[in-house]
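stage 2 :: seqdesign
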């Protein structure tokens, strides 16, 4: 099964309902990047009239995780994945449509290759940057993913 934005959004509706209800949507995925959007609205706001940081985190993590899922599927190996750490910075109020982009497809390729070659678990840091409709950065999230071959 090819992973597409439509299939990712259906997956979100059934497996990540909080993200779906908050408006997190996959818009694009290819070998190198994944794009996820979320619009500031009543359901996902904070008391400061901007998007709650955790909603931004859901969209950012989804951009890294969807890319990871696609790469694992392409490997035809049984590989587990888990976020083990994360860091975030916020530089501007998140209002309007926020777009999170992860460009770390090649990092995943390297980690999967090494995991298959060595049989050992691997970790990698992936970054997702959120920008508003004026292309201004509002937040950056970094997720440390752990992958390993299932026995």
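stage 2 :: out
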């Amino acid at each position: 099964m090819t992973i597409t934005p439509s299939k990712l959004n259906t997956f979100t509706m059934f497996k990540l309902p909080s993200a779906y209800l908050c408006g997190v949507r996959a818009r694009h995925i290819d070998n190198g990047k994944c794009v996820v959007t979320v619009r500031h609205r009543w359901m996902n706001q904070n008391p400061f009239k901007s998007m709650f940081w955790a909603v931004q985190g859901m969209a950012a993590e989804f951009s890294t995780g969807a890319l990871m899922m696609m790469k694992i599927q392409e490997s035809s190996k049984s590989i587990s994945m888990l976020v083990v750490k994360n860091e975030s910075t916020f530089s501007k109020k998140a209002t309007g449509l926020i777009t999170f982009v992860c460009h770390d497809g090649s990092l995943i390729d390297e980690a999967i290759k090494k995991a298959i070659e060595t049989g050992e678990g691997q970790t990698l840091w992936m970054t997702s940057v959120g920008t508003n409709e004026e292309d201004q950065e509002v937040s950056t999230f970094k997720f440390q993913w752990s992958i390993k071959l299932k026995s």
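stage 3 :: structure notes
- Strands lie at 25-29, 34-39, 79-90, 97-102, 122-131, 137-149.
- The mean pLDDT is 97.
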